């Protein structure tokens, strides 16, 4: 019997392209599986580039949100419209729904369509949102410890939507007529560099005048053409780049194709180019999938570990600044990270890619990474030039192995980090402070669960214990988030506490007790791994809290 899978992805262009490994992995898991995709109508043309889809199902979610906010239709009418649209999907009886959009509307959609296996966001019994699958829950949590995250979004989608498997590069389907069009457009030079100088968010864009300077320096030793891409809204940015470029002596052939291509033409254009110099944008991922060598300028709140170019042979320049990358909810007043990337570095890197000249060996103010594939078949980035904090480097490796083994049940083939724990004193102190706090919290949570399960509940006693537990949780948060040795599992614990997709005070109390016990088990496990004999070489192929896994509810997102 052919398996049927529905993917819901109604966010952005880049997120759709980054599903490539998931689509391949589903065919590896279920050969011949029929995979459908629900997408916002604005991005339906992107889905046409992807391989492995049976049906693309567009809907104008943008208009739906506008209509609901403006009260163009009453709530009942909106509900009826959506219900009529989802009815044929519900009748398909999908074997699995993979919801890659983490918001309440998509969760309601996943719940309304229904499937035996829903991964990602779905609606809770009370109309809230829960997130099923540990990898999807990890996606919701890692922004709290993103300095230690080493999982690309491409792999999180594939691991959460399917399972671990072989590496598959991102790919797009390019029609022959679009390839012919691109060859004709770029006929004026034998080599081309595509340039994406703008971005949908100004926080993600390198300064236009620095683009101009670096391209002018490139033109002194390379005489190919420059093809500017992007949306028509980026015309002002491109004009500023070209003004500075020409004033600085740039003389390469230039074509401004921003807003003048279809998506498939853009893919064909990038496939013809030797390199793409870009901010972190949707076209960057199209360039990767088209086989173009990408140079990613990772500025603002962009973290290349999460959304950088996936696969082998791409380059990332990351500012070397304590606040970089900044948080998603931050509004930066200085954008100092963008000044840390020098035009000299960008020009030298382009010359290395285009003319096989030596790669930059000295970098000031930034770090240079090259993308690759690690021993577990996942995307990775190797530091080529620059320095990382010893604490960041050590724990990034540790947590990479920990989460892979915990969530897949498989031993990681990535070698353990060599060398002693750089913050051993602080790590041990945090763990030793946490353990007695957690033991007390576990006893208190068990007592609350016991009282809540009685026929006649002593509410004053329960409320007093809950008040004490709330104070205890604040202390656990303060101590746990203060150390790289415990912050990731603390964030997971706090998320699990909110995963209360259960009815009844007694079940809620048991859920909270289980969350505390899982947290304690993980802290004890981390202590053993860090301070036991050859602890970091130990492979645990299951979650230390797995004895409670069957009773553990899905992750709830507040």
Could you name the CATH class of the largest domain?
Alpha Beta
The class by helix and strand makeup works out as alpha/beta
| Beta-strand residue percentage | 5-15%
**Helicity level:** 40-55%
Q: Helix segment count?
A: 21
What is the tally of beta strands? 15
- Give the overall pLDDT as a whole number: 90
Tally of structural domains: 3
CATH architecture grouping of the largest domain: 3-Layer(aba) Sandwich
Q: Largest sheet, if any?
A: 8 strands, mixed
The CATH topology of the largest domain is given as: Rossmann fold
**How would you sum up the global shape?**
globular
Q: Residue ranges: pLDDT <50 for 5 or more in a row?
A: 546-558
Rg, alpha carbons: 25 Å
Order of strands side by side in the largest beta sheet?
9-8-7-10-11-12-13-14
Task: Name the descriptors.
Rossmann fold, 8-stranded mixed β-sheet, alpha/beta, 15 strands, 14% strand, 7-stranded mixed β-sheet, disordered C terminus, 558 residues
Topology (SSEs and partners):
Blueprint: E1 4-8, H1 13-17, H2 20-29, E2 34-40, H3 44-47, E3 55-59, H4 61-70, H5 75-91, E4 96-99, H6 104-113, E5 117-123, E6 129-132, H7 134-141, H8 153-161, H9 176-185, E7 192-196, H10 208-219, E8 225-228, H11 235-247, E9 254-256, H12 263-272, E10 275-279, H13 282-289, E11 293-297, H14 304-307, E12 315-319, H15 336-339, H16 343-355, E13 366-373, E14 379-385, H17 390-408, H18 424-452, H19 459-480, H20 487-497, H21 505-531, E15 555-557
Parallel strand pairs: 1-2, 1-4, 2-3, 4-5, 7-8, 7-10, 8-9, 10-11, 11-12
Antiparallel strand pairs: 5-6, 6-15, 12-13, 13-14
Helix pairs in contact: 2-8, 7-8, 9-12, 10-11, 10-16, 12-13, 18-19, 18-21, 20-21
């Amino acid at each position: 019997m052919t398996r049927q899978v529905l993917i819901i992805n109604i966010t952005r262009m880049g997120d759709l392209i980054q599903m490539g490994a998931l689509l391949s992995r589903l065919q590896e898991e279920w050969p011949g599986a029929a995979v459908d995709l629900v997408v916002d109508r604005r991005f339906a043309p992107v889905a046409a580039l992807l391989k492995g889809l049976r049906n693309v199902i567009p809907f104008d979610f943008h208009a739906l949100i506008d209509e609901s906010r403006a009260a163009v239709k009453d709530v009942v009418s909106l509900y009826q419209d959506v219900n009529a649209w989802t009815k044929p999907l519900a009748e398909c009886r999908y074997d699995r729904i993979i919801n890659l959009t983490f918001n309440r509307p998509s969760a309601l959609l996943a719940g309304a369509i229904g499937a035996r296996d829903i991964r990602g966001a779905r609606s809770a019994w009370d109309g809230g949102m829960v997130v099923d699958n540990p990898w999807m829950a990890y996606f919701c949590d890692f922004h709290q410890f993103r300095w230690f995250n080493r999982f690309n979004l491409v792999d999180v989608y594939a691991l959460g939507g399917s399972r671990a498997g072989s590496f598959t590069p991102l790919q797009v389907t390019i029609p022959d007529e679009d390839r012919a069009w691109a060859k004709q457009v770029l006929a004026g030079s034998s080599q081309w560099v595509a340039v994406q100088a703008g971005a949908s968010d100004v926080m993600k864009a390198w300064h236009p005048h620095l683009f101009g300077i670096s391209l002018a320096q490139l033109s002194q030793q390379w005489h190919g053409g420059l093809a500017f891409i992007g949306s028509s809204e980026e015309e002002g940015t491109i004009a500023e780049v070209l003004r500075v470029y020409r004033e600085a002596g740039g003389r390469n052939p230039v074509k401004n194709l921003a807003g003048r291509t279809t998506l498939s033409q853009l893919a064909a254009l990038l496939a013809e180019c030797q390199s793409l110099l870009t901010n972190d944008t949707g076209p960057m991922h199209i360039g990767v999938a088209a086989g173009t060598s990408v140079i990613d300028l990772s500025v603002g709140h962009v973290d290349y570990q999460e959304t950088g170019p996936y696969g082998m042979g791409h380059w990332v320049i990351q500012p070397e600044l304590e606040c970089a990358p900044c948080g998603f909810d931050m509004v930066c007043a200085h954008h100092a990270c963008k000044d840390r990337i020098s035009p000299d570095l960008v020009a030298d890197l382009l010359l290395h890619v285009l003319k096989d000249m030596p790669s930059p060996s000295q970098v000031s103010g930034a770090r240079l990474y090259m993308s690759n594939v690690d021993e577990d078949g996942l995307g990775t980035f190797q530091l080529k030039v620059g320095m990382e904090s010893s604490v960041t480097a050590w724990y990034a490796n540790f947590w990479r192995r920990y989460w892979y083994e915990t969530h897949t049940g498989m031993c990681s083939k990535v070698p353990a980090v060599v060398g002693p724990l750089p913050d051993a004193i602080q790590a041990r102190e945090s763990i030793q402070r946490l353990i007695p706090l957690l033991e007390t919290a576990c006893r208190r949570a068990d007592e609350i669960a016991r009282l809540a399960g009685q026929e006649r509940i002593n509410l004053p006693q329960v409320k007093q214990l809950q008040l004490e537990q709330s104070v205890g949780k604040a202390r656990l948060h303060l101590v746990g988030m203060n150390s790289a040795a415990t912050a990731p599992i603390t964030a997971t614990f706090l998320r699990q506490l909110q995963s209360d997709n259960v009815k009844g005070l007694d079940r809620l109390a048991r859920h909270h007790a289980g969350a505390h016990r899982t947290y304690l088990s993980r802290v004890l496990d981390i202590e053993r791994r860090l301070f036991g004999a050859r602890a970091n070489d130990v492979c645990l192929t299951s979650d230390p809290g797995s004895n409670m896994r069957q009773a553990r509810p899905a992750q709830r997102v507040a």
